[in-house]
Structure formats: structure tokens, C-alpha cells
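Worked example
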Amino acid sequence: MSVGSVSAVSSVIGRWLPPLCSIASSILPAFASSGVSQYPANSLLQFSATIAPVVNAAMTFKIRTPDGVITDYSSTVESNSLGNYVASFLPVQPGPHQYEWVATGAAQTSSIGQFYCTPGLF
């Protein structure tokens, strides 16, 4: 079972934005230069999770922001087909973020991940 892939989609212009790799790693914390995905602040991120296709599985999705606050975004989780789930998040704080998917019910599994949000350029 695999759970938790992340992709970035711009909420402003509606197209994919690549990570800001051109920013010198010397000005970013070590977290950002360690191969962790980077996305600009205020870009809508869409997370996806895939679990074994079972009926009656419940998915929760939480994010820890750089200030340490953990927020449950489970109400935003949608199932676009059996076993496939998506959730959206708009990061506004630059810095390291962690996320967690948890499946309960008929399919019990979890996955954690991380990404780095860079300050906006404009």
C-alpha cells in the first residue's frame, strides 16, 4: 500500500509551479536543501493518498505548520475513486511543514511526509 504523494498547483494562475530550485541553498535552512520538495507560499498544494481499494475506509489528513500548530484537514479529503483520496492545503507560512495521512476502518495504515514552503517572490 502506498499513501501520500504531493504535487503543487498554483491557486492564483491555475497551473503547476516547479519547486524554487534556483534559490541558493545557502540562504535556505538545511531542511530545504536536503532534497525535500519545495513550494512557494500561497500556492495551493494538492495531496493524494492511495490505499487498498476497500469499502468503509475513513481517511484523516493533518498538517503541522512551521509554528508547530497541527491542523486537521480531514473535512477537505475527497475520494475520487475507491481507494484514492485527495486533500488541498494553502500554505502561508514559509518553513518546514509535515503532513500525515491515516486510514481507519476497513483499511488501517498511515503515512507521513514533509515539504518546505519558500517565501513568495512577489
User: Anything to note?
Assistant: The two ends are 40 Å apart (CA to CA). Residues 5-118 form a domain with the Immunoglobulin-like fold (CATH 2.60.40.10). The chain is about 0% helix and 45% strand. The longest strand covers residues 95-105.
